[in-house]
Hints:
Blueprint (H helix, E strand, L loop, with lengths): L1 E8 L5 E8 L6 H11 L15 H8 L21 E9 L5 H11 L5 E7 L3 H4 L15 E9 L4 H17 L31 H12 L2 H12 L20
Antiparallel strand pairs: 1-2, 1-4, 3-5, 4-5
Amino acid sequence: MRLIILPALNEAGNRTIQVIFNSMFLGNVDKLMETITDSFPELGLQEKDCSEMSWIETVLYFDNYTVGRSIDVLKDRKPVPKSYFNGKSDYVKEPIPEEKLEEIWKWCLEGDNPVLVMEPHGGKMHEIDETRIAYPHRKGYLYNIQYLERWDNDSIESSAKRISWMRKMYENMTPYVAKNPRAAYVNYRDLDLGENGNLDDTSYLNAMNWGSKYFGDNFRRLAMVKGVVDPDNFFFFEQSIPPLIMREE
């Protein structure tokens, strides 16, 4: 389950915040209703809120196609219209007070087309040690947040406006998110956190600026693995892990 938070118009035509609960359950509606009624009755889920579909149909659903659209559209190789987006991410360890959420909604309404996505953690993720695999954000983390802004205008002014809002939103959220380090999700790559120089100018210490946020204490181990399997840094990009080569004395 995830929460999608975005602006919408109310019945009076005024801009407000809409919160969408969006999820996929591997089972039928009856089993879902039983599970939610037992574990999350506050949601007030009703059978009419649910749609049963095959797994391949969920691909269309999560890509915002209308319900009932034929899966044949997946064979359509026409490119989608070009658009632009900017994104950042955070993790939350302590519940954000309700009155502060109201303030966050006001910040969202300052953006032109903002989207906040909150994805809960817990459950099985808490049972896996943070050093077991590369992904470290497990026990103690409540959920992550993706901040997203999209636009179609390719002008420098339009891009600068959206990026400025995003950076302001990120700064405003500082008191409410994980600290030391401030964590980030690697799949929401954020170049504001820092980036490598050219291929011949990578530095483990510089890469710590983003590596510690993405991978926590696992970053050093990942860099050591890179030093063994790719010492020449063939697999290089703006935020690739640099090789950390340990020299024997």
